[in-house]
Amino acid sequence: MDILLIAGLWLDGSAWDDVAPALEARGHRPVPITLPAQASATLDDQVAAVLAAVDSASEKPMVVGHSAACTLAWLAADARPEWVAKVALIGGFPCADGSRYADFFELKDGVMPFPGWGPFEGPDSADLDEEAKRTFTSAAIPVPEGVAKGVVRLTDERRFDVPAVLVCPEYTPAQAQQWIDAGDVPELAKAKHLDFVDIDSGHWPMLTKPLELARLLAAAATGA
Question: I need a surface site. Which of 10, 104, 160, 162 has the fewest CB within 10 A?
């Protein structure tokens, strides 16, 4: 199966460098996506890049979103509900219609730079050593304001028919289910086919547990 891989904020397609070969070894075709990130880029530009990858897939793909990019994966299901085979959401949840995509941190000169590790202390970053943190920080790509403040537009109710799997890193499947039941994740509350899988990692399992993550994604792709 074609597996489209979309990393979260401040990352590009290279975030999947250790995941992609493991997916290939399991018979899949990984497609890491590097999103438009020039200062003038908008959320619509990033959605267009994802949809171009969806439309180029040789078969119905599984679209994987990490963190904030869970919303991009969900937008793909909304735009192509008849063509996206499954959505995998790692460490994040899709925004609701009308929400801002990722208006989380301070903007500087038209972009949202990586804010440092303070906001991610605890379970998010517990499995990253100091060298890994320095590497992440030095490579972090500022998020354009037009992306961070872009408004999410969902239009096709058929997105709820697309099977979804929620990969839970720094929280448990039970916690995720509680948040959904409490109404905190209205999009997933309406999903008709939602599975949960656990991975014992921080917020960036593609960096700290790439082989385990590849195993889980391959299993999700084959319905195991």
Answer: 104
**Where do the DSSP E strands lie in the chain?**
2-6, 29-33, 62-66, 86-90, 111-112, 143-144, 164-168, 194-198
Rg of the chain over Cα atoms, rounded to whole angstroms, equals: 16
Structural tokens at position 15: 């975030």
pLDDT tens-digit profile of 171-218?
999 999 999 999 999 999 999 999 999 999 999 999 999 999 999 999
Residues spanned by the domain of 179: 2-222
Task: Give the angle 125-128-132 at the CA atoms, nearest 5°.
Answer: 125
Amino acid residing at 149: K
Total of domains in the chain: 1
Q: Which amino acid, residue 101? A: Y
Q: Residue 86: pLDDT above 60? A: yes
Q: What is the DSSP string of 112-132?
A: E----SGGGTTTTTTT--HHH
pTM of the complete model: 0.96
Residue with tokens 């949840």: 93
Q: Looking at residue 223, what is its pLDDT?
A: 83
Please report the pLDDT score of residue 168 as a whole number. Answer: 98
